[in-house]
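To the wet lab folks,

You asked to see what we're planning to order before we commit. Fair enough. Below is the target structure as tokens, and below that is the sequence we designed to fit it. If anything looks off to you, flag it before the synthesis order goes out.
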């Protein structure tokens, strides 16, 4: 059978009766790039909460705001202490026309205007020390002000420098070099029907202790009639490895078995596109070079899951004996060679689904009877 290939990097595509065109725009909790689409609204005192955790607030700032805050902090402290020095000089009578008796020795030498006071504040805080403007022994309160300025501005510089280093050292950018396949496929693997996604590391540096987890988000109604808009169910993934925490150096396929314990056990080729759910996938890994923990995220909706398809191979062996990962094949899928995946008997599936529903009702009835008997 000739393989029918689909390149998921270009949409919409139609191949073999399976369409990649979305029937409607579904709301997503998590975007494909891993950003949250949840808006926090109507929180009382939210700005106060941000100020109470000022460290995280400054780190989470965008770089343009952070650089503006960095520059404004220095300019504001220079100007603020410059105004105070100017007021001291004014009250001491060091300025012409101040209305106070002029002393023979000024508090700050060569400070005759607000501009001079600003320059003295700048030179003191940055420890430039040109020697033209300096504090004399005439005004002890000016000396205390200078000490206070150096202590306060040093603490501010430590805080801002620390947030810069923390923001640069965050593994957020490292997580952006982790690539998820745009689509997921459902195919047979080792005799089991599996949901498969593909993950790749785009850098040569290793990612170790990789753990892939999933959360199925869908509307759920409890037995009491409560409607949960985003009910979460755990989706477990594994890889073809004896280790539960493999290192990510080559593109890997992660598998979720669609058995009776899977929250996706009711999926069929007929109802897949009609389902309304979102599968959020999270990859947690440790960067070998820095030992920092990074997390990369994405999500899949029914229109991005293809039944009866499999991923194209991406690993090959070159002529010089090196393994090569061909990322031109990373997003491509082809029809599975197992005809039973996309030519399954619909009547049989209906009977199986009906049997599952009856079994679920029987379990609920037994649970209710057991609860009544305990009462």
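Sequence we intend to order:
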């Amino acid at each position: 059978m000739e393989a029918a290939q689909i390149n998921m990097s270009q949409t919409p595509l139609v191949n073999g009766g399976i369409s990649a065109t979305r029937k409607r725009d579904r709301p997503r909790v998590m975007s494909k790039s891993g950003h949250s689409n949840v808006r926090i609204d109507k929180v009382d005192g939210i700005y106060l909460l941000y100020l109470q955790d000022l460290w995280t607030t400054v780190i989470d700032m965008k770089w343009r705001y952070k650089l503006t805050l960095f520059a404004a902090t220095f300019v504001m402290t220079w100007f603020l202490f410059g105004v105070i020095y100017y007021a001291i000089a004014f009250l001491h009578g060091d300025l012409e026309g101040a209305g106070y008796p002029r002393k023979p020795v000024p508090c700050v030498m060569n400070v005759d205007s607000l501009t001079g006071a600003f320059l003295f504040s700048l030179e003191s805080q940055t420890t430039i020390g040109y020697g033209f403007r300096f504090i004399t022994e005439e005004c002890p309160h000016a000396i205390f002000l200078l000490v206070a300025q150096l202590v306060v501005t040093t603490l501010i510089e430590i805080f801002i420098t620390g947030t810069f280093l923390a923001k640069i050292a965050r593994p957020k950018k490292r997580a952006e070099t982790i690539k998820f396949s745009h689509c997921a496929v459902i195919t047979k693997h080792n005799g089991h029907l599996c949901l498969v996604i593909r993950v790749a590391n785009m850098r040569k540096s290793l990612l170790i202790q990789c753990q892939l987890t999933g959360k199925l988000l869908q509307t759920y109604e409890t037995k009491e009639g409560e409607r949960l808009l985003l009910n979460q169910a755990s989706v477990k993934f594994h890889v073809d490895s004896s280790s539960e925490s493999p290192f990510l150096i080559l593109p890997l396929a992660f598998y979720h078995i669609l058995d009776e314990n899977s929250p996706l056990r009711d999926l069929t080729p007929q109802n897949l596109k009609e389902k309304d759910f979102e599968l959020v996938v999270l990859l947690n890994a440790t960067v070998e070079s820095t030992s920092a923990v990074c997390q990369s995220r994405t999500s899949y909706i029914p229109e991005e899951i293809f039944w009866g398809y499999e991923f194209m191979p991406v690993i090959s062996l070159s002529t010089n004996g090196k393994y090569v990962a061909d990322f031109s094949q990373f997003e491509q899928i082809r029809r599975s060679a197992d005809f039973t995946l996309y030519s399954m008997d619909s009547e049989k599936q209906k009977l199986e689904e009906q049997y599952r529903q009856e079994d679920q009702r029987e379990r609920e009835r037994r649970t209710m009877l057991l609860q009544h008997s305990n009462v």
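Structural context that might help your review: DSSP finds seven helices and 16 strands in the chain. The first strand starts at residue 5 and ends at 7.

Thanks,
Computational group
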